[in-house]
Amino acid sequence: MSNTDRTIHIVGAGPAGLVAAINLAKAGFNPIVHEQHEDVGKRFNGDFQGLENWTTEEDVTEFLDSIGIEINFRCVPYFGGDFYGPNLKKIPIKTQKPLFYLIERGVNEGSFDQGLKQQALKAGVKISWNDKLETTPPGKVIVGTGPKAADAIAKGIVFKTSHPDMCVGFVDNRIAPRAYAYLLVNNGSATFATCLFEDFKNEKMYFEKALQTMQKVVDIEISQPKEFGGFANFYLNPFVTKNGRILYVGENAGFQDALWGFGIRYALMSGFLAAQSIITGKSYDELCKQHIHPFLKVSLANRMIFAHLGNRGYQWLLNKFSRVKDARLILQRHNKYSLLKKTLFLIAYRWYRTRLIDKQCMHQNCNCVWCRCGKEVSKSL
Ligand SMILES: Cc1cc2nc3c(=O)[nH]c(=O)nc-3n(C[C@H](O)[C@H](O)[C@H](O)COP(=O)(O)OP(=O)(O)OC[C@H]3O[C@@H](n4cnc5c(N)ncnc54)[C@H](O)[C@@H]3O)c2cc1C
Questions:
Q1: What distances in angstroms separate CA 332 from CA 66, 109, 335, 338, one per listed residue?
Q2: Most Cβ neighbours (<10 Å): which of 260, 371, 373, 374?
């Protein structure tokens, strides 16, 4: 293979693009990452997120190791937290192994984004900053440019506090329609946000109500608040390769958790699989069908169930979780691609069908990074 063949262009320095680049560089390729901003993590504002640890038995730290990622960023295990349903009665939920690992997103030192950037640079990846691509370069290209539309949104604040570390969750359609609000405190910094799966135009009202609700049950001082927000995009597209040379990764490919928006693991996994496909010649579409699509299908089935629970159902669910020693095990069970979940997925797929269409053009000979210039191809799952 010539040196030119070994040059792989990657669009977007998000987690998906960077993991692909790190793995390609380690395998002797020359990845060049094109990033539209002057640094990584510009989509975020120092807010805390969770690396979920409940979809697989394998700990997410082992998963990181298996895809060649070291932990050189803030990564703190949380063994459950305090949860509140609509009646605002505290329900502590515990797990034997971490429920999630708290990470920071954004440009600050110690953030997940900066950690991945350091690993990429160390592996020899070239990153071209302030380089927004509209069309894809020639040869094999990996596109990881993030969400294209909003299926769920989040609005929140990050702030300083002297409160001890904690995780608090709220499920109540009056403050977070068909979703949840969360407070994460770590080492003097905190993130509070509400997520919405519908009624986006009233996000300000929901955020204010969510903040008031949180302050009723948590005695926490808020200093130096800064706003942040964002959106998530999920859909199911069985074809994540175009023209046999453009491989879509991360949220750009619709790889997002339809239940609660925990998309980082799918972003990382898809970046790794895209690199493996280039290194080994295996089909990227097939690798994704095997390692990612079953999880996405289960998440869609779970979304349909969760969206129909309503406030009484949330309360019932929390009570159920509070009675077990290890809530992580129940979540794990609900994330298995069982016969029941396969059936529920088919119903959910019909239910959400219009939302799940990826309007991206998949025409042969179209080299746009992202466009809607043509009809979608027929897709079957
Ligand atoms: C508020 C919020 C909270 C979240 N919380 C969690 C959580 O707790 N746990 C979890 O697992 N997930 C969470 N998510 C989802 C998670 O952040 C995403 O799934 C993940 O970041 C997707 O990674 P990605 O690499 O696909 O895309 P991104 O992180 O969006 O990265 C895409 C990159 O591509 C660049 N780019 C875009 N277009 C171009 C272009 N044309 N040319 C060059 N560069 C370009 C962008 O600047 C960006 O750097 C949250 C999302 C939001 C918005």
A1: 20, 33, 5, 12
A2: 260
Ligand 1 closest atom vs CA 250: 26
Residue given tokens 């990050």 in the structure block: 158
Residues of the chain with CATH 3.50.50.60: 7-75+106-149+235-299+352-356
**Contact of 348 with 234, CB cutoff 8 Å:** no
Can you list the alpha helix ranges (DSSP code H) found in the chain?
Answer: 15-26, 60-66, 112-122, 203-217, 264-280, 284-291, 293-322, 327-334, 339-351
C-alpha 231 to ligand 1 mean position (Å): 9
Determine what percent of the chain is predicted with pLDDT higher than 70.
92
Average predicted confidence (pLDDT) for the chain = 92
pLDDT of residue 371: 64
Can you tell me whether residue 356 is helix, strand or coil?
helix
Q: What is the rounded average pLDDT of the residues 291-310?
A: 96
- pLDDT over 90 at 367, yes or no: no
261 lines ligand 1 (CB under 6 A): yes
pTM, entire model: 0.94
Per-residue pLDDT tens over the stretch 227-278: 999 988 888 888 899 988 999 999 999 999 999 999 999 999 999 999 999 9
Which tokens go with 39? 């640094």
Distance CA 183, CA 126 (A): 37
Regarding the beta carbon of 60 and ligand 1, being less than 6 Å apart is answered no
φ, ψ of residue 144 to 5 degrees: the values are -135, 65
Distance CA 164, CA 187 (A): 7
What is residue 363's predicted lDDT score, i.e. its pLDDT?
62
**8 A C-beta contact, residue 37 and residue 128:** no
